Amino acid sequence: MKQAAGHGLLFMVLFFLLPIGSLSSDHHRHKSSFRRVLIGHDSDKYAVIFDAGSTGSRVHVFRFDQNQDLLPIGNELELYVSTKPGLSSYAADPQAAASSLRPLLEEAEAVVPIWLQPDTPARLGATAGLRLVEGDAAEKILDAVRNLFKNESHLKYKHDWVSILDGVQEGTYMWVTINYLLNTLGRSYAETVATIDLGGASVQMAYAISDENAAKAPHVAANETYLLQKNLKGTNYNLYVHSYLKYGSKAARAEIFKASRNSTNPCILEGYEGTYTYGGVVYRVSAPRKGANMKRCQILTRKALKINAPCKYDSCTFNGIWNGGGGDGEKNLYLSSSFYWTALDSGILKQNATGGRILVNAYKDTAKTACSTKFMDVKSKFPDVQEENIPYLCMDLVYIYTLLVDGLGELKFLLILPEEIINYTNTA
């Protein structure tokens, strides 16, 4: 069953719970350490993780034996339940936000034995959707969720187990997770892989860089950073991480509509007229008389990405952001979240695919077909696209291609979708 975009963020939440310094150099002990920290202590049997993304909220329940090895829940490795919209959609009503999690909480408690619930931790990590909420609305939502967990649940709860992950955390945890799964942690930085995670509200890029490039890292504001020093499995890494807020798959649509100044948009399929709402703002959505035009859509997307913004450093990605200098740590690239879901929607990957290797031009070639298709004909050419994404199929494909090639540094080499993560998260 196709799951909500952003489901890969589960792994960021898992590593949010894991002190990175606890990683062992022994693979078997490493697995046990990971699981033991996740569930709290050896007597725990279950763990309940809420992933509060920008497009929706999900709950994952894991079951462990006394050796901290995963056990099935029913016929699956985990219980997975999701709901839409995300918490940020309830900015004006914190109680409604918390209430949206109640069905997920009830489903989770239904599979955790009553006698184990007091020792089963329930934790929630929110991502860019709540980071974008203005004023104190996000904190009010978190407080409402804390009250829900405290007053309506028998699961183990602590105040600071409900929190918002910042963009650097998101990028770091995804990089650590994928390299953990690939068993590349502890090797030289050149043997690790780079990660780009395209969520609904933000996109994160992370990869290990050389000492030489690390020495060139620019000095930025006190509350910002491009570079983290990490010791993982006995190896020191210079980790370049950056999170681009407002450039996730759903937020980018809004940025492209802003760039078109509310006029007809060359990224919209012929025959469609409507509205798009994001962050409480309603955008007019209408196609030009002759329909979508891929080249004009690319020009508009480059404008939204601010490709031509001044670069104060040796080299930049988009909007004047330092790119880390490149190097061997960037040569093998793993993509996740909306990169995967858009590939499924558009037929780049077959519906039963749990991942795969593709060339970046696959997004471009598919965009050519999508942009030349009328709105009413989309389902005949792209039978797997979800209904809510039909008007934006051309836009989404062009955005991904432009983001990868023009925005993040001409990433034209072979791209790899993370099979290990997608296998793991497709168990529901």
From TrEMBL:
Gene Ontology biological-process annotations: nucleoside diphosphate catabolic process
Presence of the UniProt keyword Transmembrane helix in the record: no
Residues involved in ATP binding: G200, A201, S202, V203, Q204
Keyword Signal: yes
Molecular function GO labels: ATP binding; nucleoside diphosphate phosphatase activity
Signal sequence, renumbered to the chain: 1-24
Pfam family name, one: GDA1_CD39
Cited Gene3D superfamilies: 3.30.420.40, Exopolyphosphatase. Domain 2
Active site: E170 (proton acceptor)
GO CC annotation, single: membrane
Keyword field: ATP-binding, Hydrolase, Nucleotide-binding, Signal
Protein family per UniProt: Belongs to the GDA1/CD39 NTPase family.
Protein name: Apyrase-like
The organism of origin for this protein: Olea europaea subsp. europaea
